[in-house]
C-alpha cells in the first residue's frame, strides 16, 4: 500500500497531539467483505464500482420480502451459525492487520483487544434441536436447562455474548480482559474509539480493534423487514442499495469484518513500524429519541461530527472527504445529509461524500471498522470509492456523492460516520501520517 505525503501540518504533529496526548497511529489494517478477503481484493472491487450483493443461497428465502444480501459465502463449505461466521471473519481480518503491522510475536500481541460483535442468539435450527431434546412440555426453563447441559455445552458457549472475543484474544495473545461491545450500527467505530482512548490514557501501547458481523439469516431478514428497514428491490440484487438516490427504499444486509492495529506513535516509531495513518479524533453522542429511528433534527449526529473534529483539533474546512453512513434508507440518508450540511455549511455541495454500503451492503456491527479500513485505503491511494446505483438524484439531498465512478483526489483527512439504531452516533477523524517534529 502506498503512502501519502501530507500537504500541510496536522494537529497531531510529532509525538503528541494538540492536547498533549499520545498520537494514535495505525500500523495494520485487515478486511473481509462480500467483495472478497483482504485489502487488495476489496480495494480493487470498490474502486471498480463492483457490488458484492447477490441473491441469498445459504438458506431458503421463499416467502421473504427481501431475498438478497452481501453474504460472505467463500469461507465455509458446510452449515455454520452466525457466531461461527462472525468469529471466522474477525480472525481473518485480524490476521491481515496484525501481519501487516509486524507487531510482537505470533500469538503474543502486546496490547488489548476491543471488539464489536453482533448481539447473537440461538437461531431456529438450534432452538428446534434443544426443544426436541426435552421430555414433556417445552418451556423456557426447560430450554435453559438443556442449553446448559453437557450435551449442548459447546453450542451454548457459542452463543454467549463474549465468546467470540475470548477466542480471538486466545488466538492472538492480547493482554488484559478482551472487551466485547455492541452499540448497534456504530459498534465498529466505538471499538476503535475505545482503543484510541486506552492508548491516550497510557493504559496500553497498542490495541487490536475489530468489528465483525456474520449474522445474515432468515430470522434477521424477517426482523428488519418488520421494521420496514430493508430494501425489497431484489432484482437485480446489485442495484438494490442506492444511498442518497430518490428511489432508495431501505438497506441491504451485509457481512464482513474490519480490523485495525492501533499504537502509541512513539511505540510504533521505536520499533520501525510503517505508519499507515492516524486516528486523530473521535466523537460519540447518543439520544433516546426512538429504539430504531434517528432524531429527526439530526442533533446527535451533528454533535458527534463536531466533537470528532474538535477532538482532532481540526475545523470542517480541513476535511477532504466524508465516508458516509449512507444506509440507503429514506430517513437515515436525509438525516445524514441535513446533519452534514449543518456542520459543513455551503461547502457540502462540493465536498465528496460517498457510501461504501452501495457495494458491500450494511455490515451492521462491523460497519464502523470496515469503513475505517476503507477510509485509510482512500487516503493511501488518493482515490475515492463511488456511490454506485446513483441514477435518480434526490432533489432534497444536494450532495456530491461521487456517483457511480471512483474519483482520483488528494485525500488527507476523512470523516467517517457511523449512526446506529437506538441513537448511537459515532464519528471518526482519520488522517495521513503527521509531519514529524
From TrEMBL:
Residues 21-432 form the Ketosynthase family 3 (KS3) domain. SMART domains: PKS_KS. The keyword Nucleus does not apply. It holds the Pfam family Ketoacyl-synt_C. Its EC number is 2.3.1.179. Belongs to the thiolase-like superfamily. Beta-ketoacyl-ACP synthases family. PROSITE patterns: KS3_1, KS3_2. This is Beta-ketoacyl-ACP synthase. Pathway: Lipid metabolism; fatty acid biosynthesis. Residues 1-20 are annotated as: Disordered. It comes from Bosea massiliensis. Keywords: Acyltransferase, Transferase. One of its GO terms (molecular function) is 3-oxoacyl-[acyl-carrier-protein] synthase activity.
Amino acid at each position: 500500500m502506498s503512502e501519502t505525503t501530507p500537504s500541510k501540518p496536522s494537529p497531531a504533529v510529532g509525538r503528541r497531539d494538540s492536547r498533549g496526548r499520545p498520537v494514535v497511529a495505525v500500523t495494520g489494517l485487515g478486511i473481509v467483505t462480500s467483495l472478497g478477503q483482504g485489502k487488495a481484493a476489496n480495494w480493487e472491487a470498490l474502486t471498480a464500482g463492483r457490488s458484492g450483493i447477490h441473491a441469498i443461497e445459504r438458506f431458503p428465502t421463499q416467502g421473504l420480502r427481501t431475498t438478497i444480501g452481501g453474504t460472505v459465502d467463500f469461507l465455509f463449505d458446510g452449515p455454520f451459525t452466525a457466531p461461527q461466521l462472525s468469529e471466522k471473519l474477525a480472525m481473518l481480518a485480524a490476521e491481515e492487520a496484525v501481519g501487516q503491522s509486524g507487531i510482537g510475536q505470533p500469538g503474543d500481541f502486546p496490547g488489548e483487544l476491543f471488539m464489536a460483535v453482533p448481539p447473537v442468539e440461538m437461531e431456529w435450527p438450534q432452538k428446534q434441536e434443544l426443544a426436541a431434546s426435552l421430555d414433556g412440555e417445552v418451556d423456557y426453563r426447560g430450554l435453559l436447562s438443556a442449553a446448559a447441559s453437557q450435551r449442548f455445552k459447546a453450542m451454548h458457549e457459542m452463543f454467549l455474548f463474549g465468546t467470540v472475543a475470548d477466542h480471538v484474544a486466545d488466538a492472538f495473545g492480547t493482554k488484559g480482559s478482551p472487551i466485547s461491545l455492541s452499540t448497534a450500527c456504530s459498534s465498529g467505530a466505538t471499538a476503535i474509539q475505545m482503543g484510541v482512548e486506552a492508548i491516550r490514557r497510557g493504559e496500553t501501547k497498542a490495541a487490536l480493534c475489530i468489528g465483525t458481523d456474520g449474522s445474515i439469516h432468515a430470522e434477521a431478514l424477517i426482523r428488519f423487514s418488520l421494521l420496514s428497514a430493508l430494501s425489497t428491490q431484489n432484482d437485480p440484487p446489485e442495484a438494490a442499495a442506492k444511498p442518497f438516490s430518490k428511489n432508495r427504499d431501505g438497506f441491504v444486509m451485509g457481512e464482513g469484518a474490519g480490523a485495525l492495529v492501533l499504537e502509541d506513535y512513539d511505540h510504533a516509531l521505536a520499533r520501525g513500524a510503517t505508519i499507515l495513518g492516524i486516528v486523530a479524533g473521535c466523537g460519540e453522542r447518543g439520544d433516546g429519541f426512538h429504539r430504531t429511528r434517528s432524531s429527526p433534527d439530526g442533533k446527535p449526529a451533528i454533535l458527534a461530527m463536531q466533537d470528532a473534529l474538535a477532538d482532532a483539533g481540526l475545523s470542517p474546512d480541513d476535511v477532504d472527504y466524508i465516508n458516509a453512513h449512507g444506509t440507503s434508507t429514506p430517513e437515515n440518508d436525509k438525516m445524514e445529509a441535513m446533519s452534514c450540511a449543518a456542520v459543513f455549511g455551503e461547502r457540502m455541495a462540493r465536498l465528496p461524500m460517498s457510501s461504501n454500503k452501495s457495494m458491500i451492503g450494511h455490515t451492521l456491527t462491523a460497519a464502523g471498522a470496515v469503513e475505517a479500513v476503507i477510509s485509510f485505503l482512500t487516503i493511501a491511494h488518493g482515490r475515492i470509492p463511488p456511490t454506485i446505483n446513483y441514477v435518480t438524484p434526490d432533489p432534497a439531498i444536494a450532495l456530491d456523492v461521487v456517483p457511480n465512478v471512483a474519483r482520483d483526489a488528494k485525500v488527507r483527512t476523512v470523516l467517517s460516520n457511523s449512526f446506529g439504531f437506538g441513537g448511537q452516533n459515532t464519528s471518526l477523524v482519520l488522517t495521513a501520517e503527521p509531519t514529524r517534529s
